[in-house]
Amino acid sequence: MANTPKSNLYEDLKRQILTMELDPDADLDEASLSERYGVSRTPVRDIFRRLAGEGYIDIRENRGARVIPMNHSTLRNFFLVAPMIYAAIGRLAVQNFKPTQLSDLKQTQERFRAASENMDALAMVLENNRFHEIFGEMSGNVYLQPSLGRLLIDHARIGHTFFRPRNEDMKRRLQVAVGHHDGFIDALGAHDENAVVDLVFEHWELSRENMEMFIAPQGLKADAFLGGPAIHLLEKSS
């Protein structure tokens, strides 16, 4: 998409949702966005429809658009299916990636590494998201790519604490994650499906407890691979 007020609106809304500048369930005001970006309401509605199709927002009849919410049901489903989707994407990426995509992945990793060294949380969120988006593009699978895209929205929102480390252990985990990205690139270059899938589960396990901190009381630890006590808490709230 060319660099236009309409494209700026699209990219800005995506960024604000991923980085939690816009809270889950926040209302999006068509009139104020139209005025701020200097476009009529028709392009704003076009962008809303596109973002709704990609899973970023929800358009409710007679009630307008809102940022896609995160409730007990969506979070439970996220924890249950994310590792499976990521593993399937990883295996297909090894089988189907193009050299230009691998080059794009390497460049994204360098930006992610620089952001981690500078402790630039917002840049880390966006570059990490892009890193995993490229895996989806590498897979070339029209069924899995939309599922991955939807997962990555909530992965960014739930896991934002991972990129704002508050102690030395969290900083160490972040550096391990950077190393995992390097490992993904090496495994892809070697066309090693098993290595990629193994890394998927290592990478998932590394970030899982940090993500649970977003939805579970402080001090409550994970006790199972697929969600642990956070899932039980969510179920109790239903």
Describe the protein in words.
Mean pLDDT is 87; it is low at 217-238. Helices cover 71% and strands 4% of the residues. The longest helix has 25 residues, at 72-96. It has 238 residues and is mainly α. Strands 1-3-2 form a three-stranded antiparallel beta sheet.
Segments where pLDDT lies below 50 for 5+ residues?
A: 217-238
Q: What is the rounded distance between the termini?
A: 41 Å
Q: What's the alpha carbon Rg, rounded to whole Å? A: 18 Å
> How many helices in DSSP terms?
10
Write the layout of secondary structure elements.
Elements: H1 5-18, E1 27-28, H2 30-37, H3 41-54, E2 57-60, E3 64-67, H4 72-96, H5 99-117, H6 121-139, H7 144-158, H8 168-189, H9 193-215, H10 228-236
Helix pairs in contact: 1-3, 2-3, 4-6, 4-7, 4-9, 4-10, 5-6, 5-8, 6-7, 8-9
